[in-house]
Batch of 2 targets.
Target 1
Amino acid sequence: MVIDREQVLHVARLARLELSEDELETMAGELSGILEHVDRISALDLDGVEPTAHVVALDNVLRPDEPEASLERERALAPAPDAEDGAFRAPSPQAR
Amino acid sequence: MNELLELSAAAALRRIEAGELSADEYFEAHAAAAAGEELNAYLWRAEPGEARPAPDPEPGSGRGAGDLRGMPIAVKDLFCTEGIETTAGSRILEGYRPPYTATAVRRLGEAGARLLGKTNMDEFAMGSSTENSAYGPVLNPWDRARVPGGSSGGSAAAVAGRLAPWAIGTDTGGSIRQPASLCGIVGLKPTYGAISRYGMVAFASSLDQCGPLTRDVTDAALLLRAMQGRDRRDSTSVGIEAGVELPSREDLAGLRVGVARDFSHHAEGVEPGVAETFERALATIEELGGEVEEVELPHASHGISAYYVIAPAEASSNLARYDGVRYGLRVDGERGLVEMYERTRARGFGAEVKRRVMLGTYALSSGYYEAYYGRALRVRTRIAEDFARAFERCDLIVTPTSPSVAFELGARTADPLAMYLSDYFTVPMSLAGIPAISIPAGLATPPGGGPELPVGLQLTTPAFTESKLLDAAHALERAFAFEGAPR
């Protein structure tokens, strides 16, 4: 097992994902199986190889900084589960 | 069946231009077929009799209106469509009506196409069978006990099942090409950067690319031409500078066609029927004057390993936006913001999405970053270098698109890794950012017996050489003379 139940719980907290007891168990097994396959790349000699995060050879793409109209507030708020006074409304981060 | 449903889009366009067919009649025939469909290919359909007019081109865009003359098009539900529900196949976006339209869809509209429907898909494009949709699986029109592939399975099934003349989808590691292969149609993943990603619900941003699913190669070229180009709303969109020529080639004379041993019909896990079809395709290539050359792609077999680190890593970051605040589902708890996040995501995401968010978060977490993400990015470099070296010796490379024909519903749902290996032949091109197309090469009997099913051939060429890729695919398509209709 590459990853155990405790690690799954830790990662789930990082990912802001509530997992049931059943999900914790199956997730540990499934992730371990996938990671074992992925671990094949640990045998490759990759010394001195540059990482590729992106394939398009682009430097910064710039444009003139000209003000223009953007999405109106009402339209941006329309799909929100809860909105009030022209803002998104969410539970308090302090609440426990 | 209405004979209008049998026309390719290009054939319908010719008739419309000649005044022999009305665009509205053509649209309505498809709207009626979509309304009566039994494949679960659509999540939203235009009501018969309510075709929306194509929008006018954006002022100053230099785009002419009307080339596509009111043609109906099916659009994967990953593309935002203003005012029309866009779910990405997820419960977490149920009922979401975006306030804007994706550039690719907008450009099709400017070219005169009209939205026929939004197609079903694996949730957030994560899957190879469309069984991960929160709205039920899509059935393969060739055999309804089998999957259409995925993640653009709804688009592929709609085109193959005569529910749309053509469709668009997205491909992150094979999500256009593999379902095209399993449904016996054409699927093109363009070069990364050819088409704007603006308004496409993000999965893995360094890999996601929009592309066409069509009856034939000419239709794919028409859609690519209408959608490609730079978009100021996506800084990674560069467009195809040379433009897109409609394919006309009828032979492969003078073309060197590369085949890599570990990445061909000799690869582990390739079904016998797929291997035989591939061998016949190689013979056809030689009959058309192409020279088959052996090339080396030593790192391609590590594509799956690199991909299933990189794509989930990017996904775990992209999907952080589904937090119950700005759109979509919210599930409140008693203990404030963090509990709301955790419950919303627990309820809103399906099993595969959770798995990938977990995998990506783990691979990026402290202590594992270099071992997984860092190494995967270096393998990605090696894979791109392999292709570059191979293209010094050949003009294009061919592979089977998928190791298997369409598999039975449920056959791989209990084994995530087996599902991931469906993408063995398609992932390396995505990692290298190069264009690749799947065309139907023939029919093969599935391993357990039963009616014959389609097998795709994948062709790939260097970045931004889509016109050459389409030309070669066109010559092969003529030679294969595939009978593209499910029985």
Note: The domain at 3-227 of chain B is CATH 3.90.1300.10 (Amidase signature (AS) enzymes).
Target 2
Amino acid sequence: MKKLTAAKAKEAYEKMNDIRNFENTLHDIFAKGEIPGFVHLYAGEEAVAVGVCSHLTDSDYITSTHRGHGHCIAKGCDLKGMMAEIYGRETGLCKGKGGSMHIADLDKGMLGANGIVGSGFPLAIGAGLRNQYLGTDDVAVCFFGDGAANEGNFHESINMAAIWKLPVVFINENNTFAESTPQHYSSASPTIAERAAAYNIPGEKVDGKDFMAVYEAAGKAIDRARKGEGPSLIEYHTYREYGHFEGDEQTYKYDSDEEIAFHDRDDIKEFRAYALKKKLFTEKDAEKIEDKSVQDVADAVEFAKASPIPQPEALFTDVFAD
Amino acid sequence: MATAITMPKLGLTMTEGTIEEWTKNEGDTVEKGEVVARISSEKLTSDVEAPASGTLIKILVQEGEDLPIKEDMGYIGEAGEEVGGAAAAPAAAETPATPAAEAAPVAATPAPAVPERKEGERIFVTPLARKIAAEKGIDYAAVTGTGGNGRITRRDVEAYAANPPAPVAAPVAAAAAPAAPKWGAGLKGMRKAVATNMMQSLTTTAQVTLQRKVDLDALMAFRSDIKAKAGDQLQDGQLSINTLITRAAILALQETPQMNSNYGDGELKHIDSVNIGEAVGLPEGLIVPIIKDAQNMNLTVLGRELRHVADLAHEGGLTPDQMSGGTFTITNLGGEGIEYFTPIINPPEIGILGVGAMAKELTLKDDGQIGTTAKLPLSLTFDHQIIDGQQAAQFLGKIAENLQNPYKLIL
Amino acid sequence: MTKIAFMNAINQALDQAMEKDDKVFLMGEDILGGTDIKHLEEKNEDSWGGCFGVTKGLGPKYGKKRVIDTPISEQSYMGAAVGAAVTGLRPVPELMFSDFIGVSFDSLLTQGSKMRYMFGGKAKLPLTVRTTIGAGASAAAQHSGAYYGIFASIPGIKVVVPSNPYDAKGLLLSAIEEDNIVVFCEDKTLYGVKGEVPEEYYTIPLGKAAVKREGKDLSIVTIGKMVSVAMEVADRLEKEGIDVEVIDLRTVAPWDEETVIESVKKTGRLIVIDEAQPHNNTATDIAATVTDKAFDYLDGPIKRVTAPNTPVPFATNLEQAYLPTADRVIEESAEIIDDLKSSK
């Protein structure tokens, strides 16, 4: 596994800031009624997406979830294209035809946010099968929530990946709630990670607020997959800053002191302190990154708002390949 | 949304009208109530007013063409607005005759195989059969359906077209819809209306004409006597021969109520009021203004009315109501020197009195002396479906009696 | 030309497609059947070659890398096929019975069929799902459905239902060449039907119906094994002097509107025979479209002859009554057939 270099750390810090600013901005914009549809924000979970994707290149695939903005940014998707997509504009990554729940960018190996819980599993199996079939050392990473862990696809897909030793890594983002339902209620096993034992693959539960812990665990699993040793399952314990969707009153939150203490942790601040201490970047670098990120997101909003809506003919195109 | 200008129905019996003139052109702005066209129908012409304000965006029926009542003759809407579907206008333009008019030749020559349908019964016809019928100008109502549910199919229409039924004279069954026979083809306006009425009359009634002379000496003496006594007060034609004959007929009708009837559409109606029609010859054709409730009029009122409606007829100012609802007609060819003739009933009336030229004849008087007597030839045509010969003769006799006892006329 | 069975025509098509393009691979339950069974692997043999033996021999020829036995996991292997297609392979998964669509539907319904559209035209889905359909094999309610209409109602999916061995091969090769999802429905009762099939690689365009016989009095449009029913109807009516045109739709989505409407314009009468249950099915779609687009050419009501609105029964006599037959077509369409007879 590659050690976290200074350059990589800077890049990771940029992306974590981009995700946080992007989502905070959307939170405000949504409240103002400027964007249509459902929006599920990733803020608070930045360490997971960025810690995992720091090991990936454009030729590696990821599958995503309802809460896909963070995965997109971590995988290198363009902020302007993303924001325009969420605004439903012609310049969006999907020409305004996908929206927040379906942002995808195949050029970046991003197989789409997904409106169906648990449907990313088999897509990752397919991408992993492709990598294995073509003999590449690319991997497919399947991000899924604690809710998706209780879908049938979880079982079928992990079992298949295991029997075929596919280069797939299953990343569980256990953000404590499946919509409004707590994980300790909906899962018979105390952890998601321990279910790996049933499939004879490595399973590990890791602190998802700790960037370095995320980075190291993911690195091990991805290396193993690239080497053809098969899939792994990692459960990252994390917490979402906002509701399941924008407008969620979140009355189900803050049930215990432990939960509140966990909620109060800020993965970005923790990583900043760590990087400064390890001299991966300086205070000045950090401030520059922070300022630039705010500006980049503001530019993305401006770009989206100035972009045209799709032409009416777009309704009829892109159903079939010619 | 465009507003349709429709062919108005002027009077009870009107079924179609002719566009005499469009006073506005397509594209002209019109105000609601403004005259946009003149139509003629039955026996009168009338202005058609714009039903809405806007632009006359479409003229569907051209000048000189006929159109059934209530059908659209044009549209008022916003400039540039499309109306009636793209196909509607060209179709109307290509085939100026309306579907009803197209139906004419078929309906006028119904085949022995005419489908047996009750009036108003729904006709089932496939879309294709309907389309082919329209293309061939066939009224599918005349076609017998052999498809499922008695439906008229393509084959039925094609079979009909390949072997059109032979023309049959006097085809009109009692139950046939009055609209079915269609006469006056090729004629326009009033001429067409006259033709239609006359043909309908001859083909739907059993006409018999009785003729007799009436001795008018007493009447003429009565008239001279009154004139001498009343003199200048007689300004309203109350003592014209025509008024007196009309009065004599009115009294006879009151005494013979079965003659004061309408018969048509399978229904015989005895009518209480005597609505007397007086035929007036105009250059364009014959016209029959009606004087309603004539039984209540004394000679003065009657004379005035007769003159008034004749004047209106010549001016073209009769209202539709003044041209319908008659119960008996009087037609007078005496001015032309005609003695006897066979007037044609004006349906749905069942009788018409033809008045000939009065003439003096040599007669052997009661005292054995030879003298002259004023004689008036009368011709009564009646519908033998309703009235028998003897009754009719008695009715004519009553008219004669009234004329020969003129004091009855002022009672 | 040699006559081969329908199932062998499919096997031949798969073989030739795999030979032509090494990104083509098969996946499904028991399609090889010998994976990890030592005594078979030693001899490079398969066992089942699919539960009907349609893929028999392909495993030994192409290996278990390209003929992949999946666990009984329809939901995930169908999704994996979508994932592999969108990332550049050309998978040909087999869904043993179209009835199993219930457990695997999400991958086609919300994922694969919508990806190209959701992603703004950037995705290609070169994916052919082979599946079996049809009653008549005493397979009862859960293994006999004719669910092509369900797939056909989804934008982004093409649906093919071949009626004979020649079409089966040419249509399947076209489907595999497509950069779109095609659901290829094989009537299991036709598997043994033999017909002339050229050995060389050939394709038949999707979306194009075949006029099986021309006629001027009456059009019958039909699908899959109902084509033989339509041909029997045509033969019988010919004896009555009625000239029937029979159209084999071949592709249910998109179905060939042009050919059907041209035929109706010629004949004015239409019967649609569809083995599916009567509501919201292909026959209904065709009837509605023809009424809409060719109303003025209709010389009688459009008759749909379908299965009844019931599941497929097991007992042989009931199953026979379930399937449309020539007798039923003639009886149920009497209203538009009888007047053709009477007017002769």
Note: Chain A touches chain C through 46 residues (CB under 8 Å).
